[in-house]
Amino acid sequence: MMKFPTYNFLIIGLLLLAGCKSSQDLANIPSKSKNGNFQAVIEIPAGTNKKIEYHKTKKKFLVDQREGKDRIIDFLPYPGNYGFIPSTFSDPEQGGDGDAVDVLILGESKNTGSIIGIIPIAVFKLIDEGELDYKIIAIPADLKAQIIKTENYQGFTSNYPEVIKILESWFSFYDKSQVIEIDGWGNETEAIEEIEKWLKKP
Q1: Residue 17 contacts by C-beta under 8 Å, 6 or more apart in sequence?
Q2: Residue 12 belongs to a domain
Q3: Helix (H, G, I), strand (E, B) or coil at 134
Q4: How far is CA 117 from the centre of its chain?
Q5: Which of 89, 87, 82, 85 minimizes the C-alpha distance to 52?
Q6: Considering its fold, how many domains does the chain have in total?
Q7: Cβ–Cβ contacts within 10 Å for residue 14, how many?
Q8: Which residues form the domain of 69?
Q9: Is residue 2 part of a domain?
Q10: pLDDT tens figures, 70-123
Q11: What are the Cα distances from residue 164, in Å, to 74, 122, 154, 161, 177?
């Protein structure tokens, strides 16, 4: 009979323990990193058509269901990395939608579950089925990951007006089952105020 060295059993044991490790509660990690940047949890990588959402109770990422089927966007894929600001909750009693603050990060595709530092540069104001639905528009805080070279709304509108038109068009038409209206834009200050408005109280 073949004998395995003791260290092989140790490695196998460690791998099994790692597989049983409980999921991190991504909804309640700090909204800011240690260096002071806001953080975002990526649900839907840029260039993806599946509507992936983080399930707060199950602590895992699942494809959203509609009529028992995976929700696939029947349009062009997401134009940025879509996710949420952790430790935020837009309270319906105060006009929120009951979820964390939405964020779209303009940059190269990041995997679902990635946590990245961001710089808010704008807030895109939408009305979804008659309810306010604001999206924070941001860029990665990491200089090496930035493809949009501006850290404020003025630079965004001046240097990338075409990107704004693309976002307005995409969000207006990506879901034919919903009536979505554009209610304007806000600058980086308004974006930060929108995040801070919905920060969970300690």
Answers
A1: none
A2: no
A3: strand
A4: 11
A5: 82
A6: 1
A7: 10
A8: 25-197
A9: no
A10: 999 999 999 999 999 999 999 988 888 889 999 999 999 999 999 999 999 999
A11: 21, 10, 12, 5, 23
Percent of the chain whose predicted confidence (pLDDT) is above 70: 89
**pLDDT: which is higher, 162 or 131:** 162
Q: For the whole model, what pTM was predicted?
A: 0.87
Q: Is there a contact between 44 and 51 (Cβ–Cβ < 8 Å)?
A: yes
List CB contacts of 152: < 8 A, sequence separation 6 or more: 121, 187, 188
Residue 122 host element (H or E): strand 115-128
Contact 111, 42 (CB under 8 A): yes
Q: Which helix or strand (DSSP H or E) is residue 58 part of? A: none
Pairing of strands 131-140, 101-105: parallel
User: Residue 98 domain-assigned?
Assistant: yes
Amino acid at 186: G
The token duo for 87 is: 């430790």
Residue 96 pLDDT: 86
Nearest to 71 by CA among 87, 89, 98, 52: 52
Structure tokens at 20: 């049983």
Element of type H or E holding 19: helix 6-19
As to burial, measured by CB atoms within 10 angstroms (0-12 exposed, 13-18 middle, 19+ buried), residue 15 is: exposed
Give the lowest-confidence range in 14-18, 47-51, 86-90, 173-177. 14-18
Q: How far apart are CA 138 and CA 101, in angstroms?
A: 12
Amino acid (one-letter) located at 202 = P
